[in-house]
Amino acid sequence: MTKRDIQHLMESKEQFVPPGRGIRALKRAAEIGAFRATGLTLFTSARLAKTILDEFNQYDGEAPSGLNFLARNLSREAIKLLPPQAEQTNDYHYHYALIRHPDSYPKGKTLGSDAIIEIVDFRLIFISSRQFPKPSLVGWIEGLGRGEDARIVHVAEKLGLIDDQENPGWRAVSAQLENDALRDRENAIARTTINVSLAIRSALDRIAEHRASKSRNLAVDAQSNIHAK
């Protein structure tokens, strides 16, 4: 995505991107970019990225990157690169430590825990992972036209109140919606899969590579200046 795209998202009243320039904003931008690569518009991609957050229970409120699990295999030396307080540690720190120990970081590879979003016929949205491949219904894309923004409808919207006392039929409705969606999935014309976890890791990889390249260029310039004198 371009800087202008990010600006549009940040200015939207729908609050598509977390405020600031921290790790949450970076992760969300990576997810939106991955959805946009499927051909969805910028705002439809942003709505989808925001909607799927309900499916995760992450410490930072965003989609999982898997970096925290990979960091468990780091050596004592590598762990010293992480903040001393656990609550201060986020995916940026995990990635920073991991890229310095490539034996613990399968760069560019899919992990079993990766969150996979599947868009079926640009209408149905499912979530799964390699570890748990059975797809689960997330919701629907409504009002999608050629080059137009669409609305994302989470399954909870159609279920209503999830309460056995106030809405005793919600479980039956949920099962019916899931079965109908899975049937449509089996008879789909097109299925598009997006690995949002890999998209986040790849975004962090690109930032690290950019910074490393910039540091090398500065070192070369400094060396050139020394020789010139």
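The above is record 1. Record 2 follows with the same two-line structure.
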Amino acid sequence: MISTVFKGDTVFIINDAWNGKDVFNLDASLIRDEQMSLTKRSARRPYSQTIVCKCKYQVTLQDAEVRSVIGSLRALTTEKVIIPLWPAVTTWADRGNSAVRGGLMLAFKDDWSQYSPYAFGDADPVWPLPSDLWTPALMGFINPTQPKMLTPDAATWDIDFQESSVAAYALRFTDDLQDVAGHALQDVAGKTLKGF
């Protein structure tokens, strides 16, 4: 995890990559219900026009990454967390072809020696080379679980993320999403998607 400043606020970026083998669980929902207030005397209507996401996935940490994550989790209090949408990572040159877009994006080098979170409408970073990486990103909070040690120098870390950001940062899907059989989708509820 990297601590940085985005739009004047301290945030943590989870730069520990999803291992690509285990499930990356992304639950996307539109909020259309009425919720009771904390005092139970009034109701709030959190209707949304954009999706709200929850993610669960696992990363494998080794050597200094283990100590870095443990230290970052100790430092994490009320700061928001930015996670890359790992299944949608593509090269900077191919970002226009991504089936998933977002109001919040992240450009980074493979080794994270340079990175830039930026929002839709901001100027694109000028440093990325065509081979550098790009992905839509999500901002919110994590359930701060501790890594599970496998050996003294290796661990797995289960990330449980809940999006909590302005609507402008929400994910958006292109019109050419397909199910796993390659058929175009009109309703993506409960379906497994390919294309990202």
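Helices lie at 64-75.
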